Model the fold of this input.
Amino acid sequence: MQRPVILITNDDGITSPGIKALVDAVSDLGEVIVVAPDSPQSGMGHAITIGDPLRLDKVDVFDGVASWQCSGTPADCVKLARDKILHRKPDLCISGINHGANHSINVIYSGTMSAAMEAAIESVPSMGVSLLDHRFEADFTIAKQVVHDLAVRMLAGKLPEHILLNVNIPIATAATFKGMKICRQAHAKWAEEFDHRTDPRGKDYYWMTGKFINMDKDPGTDVEALKAGYASVVPIRIDFTDTKMKEWMEREWQF
Amino acid sequence: MQRPVILITNDDGITSPGIKALVDAVSDLGEVIVVAPDSPQSGMGHAITIGDPLRLDKVDVFDGVASWQCSGTPADCVKLARDKILHRKPDLCISGINHGANHSINVIYSGTMSAAMEAAIESVPSMGVSLLDHRFEADFTIAKQVVHDLAVRMLAGKLPEHILLNVNIPIATAATFKGMKICRQAHAKWAEEFDHRTDPRGKDYYWMTGKFINMDKDPGTDVEALKAGYASVVPIRIDFTDTKMKEWMEREWQF
Done:
C-alpha cells in the first residue's frame, strides 16, 4: 500500500517551532509535505491572495522533508500545494501547531483554521491544532501526542465526507493532562479596546487589543474542556447556513 | 423615538460605487455612519489586523453622511467603528454592495461577509450584500430596492438574537427581477488553476485563477435562486460546530 500523503501548513510561518513539532509528530505516519507561509500570518482568517502574485520557493528547513515557503496566506498555501506541488489531494492536512489558542469564536479569525478549512472544502480530512501557549519556548510534548492520536484515527477509518477538526491543547504535563474531549464551539467574543496613540507627526493610530469574553455557561464547550485540562476537539462545518434562522424567516417574513 | 444608527462598510473600499449605492439605499431609514477600508480588500476573509497599527481618518465622500476610512480590513472597520466612533452598538450593520457574487462557498473568502459577521458576533443585526456584476458601471437599482426592503424588516421586527444574512442580487431589470428568496448555501467550491509566470529576473510566480464548481444539485440553494432571477437571502451561523459530525465522532471514536 502507498504511504499516505500528509500536507502540513500553519499560520505562524515555516520557521516557527510549532510547525517543526507538527512535522515530528506525524512523520512516521506517511509522506510529509510542508507548504507554509514565509512570514507570520496570524489573524489572517480565510484571506486569499487575488490582487497580488504568489511566490513559492523550495526550502531546506526540516531534515528529509520536502518543504516550500509561500508568500501568501495559509489558505493560499493549501491551494498552491494541491495544484502545483502534489498534483492530487493529500490524504490528510494538518495546520499548526499554532502558538496560542484558537478555541470558540477564534475559529473565525484563525489563519491556522482557515488552512484546514480550505482542505476540507476539497473534501480532504483536516485539522487545525493550537497550543494554549504563545511563547517561542512552549512545550509541544502533549500537543504532539494528541496530533499523532488524531492523525492515526483520520488515516485509518472510514470517515464522513467532511471531517474538519478544531483541536486546542491546554498547557499541561503528562501528569496533569486529562486527555481529549469532543466539544462544541463556545459562544464567546472579543471585547476590543483599541489602544490609541499618536505618531511623531501628530497623527492618530490604533493598536487592536481585546479581552476574551466567554458568554457560554452551558456544558460541553471547548473553553470548559480546556479549563478542566482536556484537549478540546470541535468538528467544524463549512456549510454556514443557519437552519433555525431560516425556519424563523420562512415563518415570519413573506417575500 | 431615536433614529436608528446604521453602520455601513464594505470590502471594495470607501470610493467604490457599491458603497455609495448602499448609503443611498438606506439613508432615509436612520442615521448612517460609514467606516470603510481606504483600499480594496476583496478576498480578505475574516482577517483582522493585529501585527500592525490601524489608521482611522475622517473623510468627506458622501454628502451629509459622517464617514471614516480605515487602513485595516472590513472586520477591523466594524471593530473600530464600535469602539472609537459609535461608542455603542449600531442598530443595523450593512456591508457592501459588493461588486461581484458572494454566494455559496464564497461566504468563507468574502471580506464583505466578514464585516457583517463581525457585527453579528456583537449581536448586531447585519447583512452582507453583493451584486453579480463586477463592473464599475454596474447598475445597483434592483440591489438598492432589495437592501431597503430587508433593512426595513430588520429595523422593524422583533428579531432572533443573531440575524446575519448573505444577500446576493442577480443582474436584472425591474422587468426581469423575480423578487427575493430565502435559501441555503450551495455546496460548491473553486477549482484553482494557478497561472504560472516568470519574472524578468527568471523567478517563478503565480496568479490565482479559478473555476467555480457547483456540486449541489438539490433544490433550495442560493446558486439556483440566482440563476432563476431571484435575489438569494441565506441566513448565516457564527457557531461553526458540526453537530452531525459531533454525533458521528461520539459514536465512532472513544477517547
